[in-house]
Amino acid sequence: MTQPIAATLIRGDGIGPEVVGATLRVLDALGLSFSWDEQLGGQAAIDETGDPLPRATIESIRARKLCLKGPLGTPIAGGFRSVNVTLRQELDLYANVRPVKSFPGVPCRYENVDLVIVRENTEGMYSGIEHWVDRDHSAAESISIITRTGSERIARYAFEYARREGRKKVTCAHKANILKATSGLFLETTRGVAREFPDIRLEELIIDNMCQQLVKDPTRYEVIVTTNLFGDILSDLCAALVGGLGVAPGANIGHHAAIFEAVHGTAPDIAGKGIANPAAEMLAAVQMLRYLDRRPEADRMEKAIRAALADAGSRTGDLGGKANTARFTDAVLAAL
Ligand code: ATP
Asked: How far is the CA of 336 from the centre of ligand 1 (A)?
């Protein structure tokens, strides 16, 4: 008997319980055994404990080092910090990894896109140092901190990922021509790491040109490594190139823990109606299986999701179809 895989499960708010429930059905059907420790976060946690991110949730992830999570709502009023940002900082999840793939049948601008954005997740413009310069708020400043250590670990993550996944090129998106110290340090450090990976080519692109090139032809890119803010913007740009939020998964990975989730939010407008597209959450679980090196299961699951997406009768409303969450999930299970 193999040991079950221990992981924390956060069903989340809004459509979270629906898409996570659908994902669990598929994981079950794969024959993998998980031992889930269910924990609360977001609005569900506030309702129960008054705290959007209870200590028990963080400790559960710290102990199991693995978490599958639905979207969490953070109320705008009430002075709560974003739960997602807090989790990344508490657990030092320095790599935000977002695969961007086109799926046959899903309406999108480009076919054959298969790239991955590796975004630095802890520093840069998100260092949290921002303030007004004067009393009457006529000027403000924000400080971007880039460290050699932070740049090196994300660059190394990107190159190791490329090598593991059989990719041949890493593109560094930067603005070192203007931000000579911060972006310059990131670029120079990435070049240093690249020298340790002679089998993988480093391509360098200035961020504005990168945006233009991505819109023109995203199929040219394999792995893109970049700083926090540029990565945030590029991720959404790329998601829109291949069919949007319903099919966009993401992971937050650190040396001691990893959290897998759909990129979309809680979608309050459709919550509880049973019509949410669970594909993004399912694809996040695929990413989790690859991270766990359960490649055969990951490939099987991804293939089944692809097959369900390719069939117009099983696509959900966000992709122009008429199916509900259960019908899409049944189609994935049938394809398995
Ligand atoms: P939040 O405040 O949690 O970010 P939001 O509504 O601002 O919520 P999203 O949840 O990302 O942001 O939703 C944006 C739009 O995309 C909504 O109209 C939502 O219904 C739709 N959407 C997001 N995810 C899905 C999904 N999985 N299936 C179908 N529609 C979705």
From this structure: 27
232 is catalytic: yes
Does the beta carbon of 318 lie inside 6 Å of ligand 1?
yes
Angle at which helices 325-335 and 16-29 cross, to 10°? 20
Distance 85 CA to ligand 1 centre (A): 19
Active site residue 168: no
Domains 1-96+247-336 and 109-241 share a fold: yes
Q: What whole-number distance in Å separates Cα of residue 26 and Cα of residue 37? A: 18
Residues 6+ apart with CB under 8 A from 271: 13, 14, 15, 18
pLDDT in tens, 171-228: 999 999 999 999 999 999 999 999 999 999 999 999 999 999 999 999 999 999 999 9
Our answer on whether the CB atom of 281 is closer than 6 Å to any ligand 1 atom is no
pLDDT one-digit tens code per residue, 58-75:
999 999 999 999 999 877
Q: Ligand 1: which of 305, 318, 325 to mutate, judged by most atoms within 8 Å of the beta carbon?
A: 318
The CATH T-level fold of domain 1-96+247-336 is Isopropylmalate Dehydrogenase (3.40.718)
Rounded Cα distance, 125 and 207, in Å: 15
Domain spans, the chain: 1-96+247-336, 109-241
| Residue 84 banded pLDDT, cuts 50, 70, 90 | confident
65 catalytic? Reply is no
Active site residue 13: no
Is the pTM here over 0.85, yes or no? yes
Fold of 109-241: Isopropylmalate Dehydrogenase (3.40.718)
What ranges in 148-294 are assigned the alpha helix state H?
148-164, 182-194, 207-216, 228-241, 279-291
The closest residue, in CA terms, to atom 22 on ligand 1 is 267
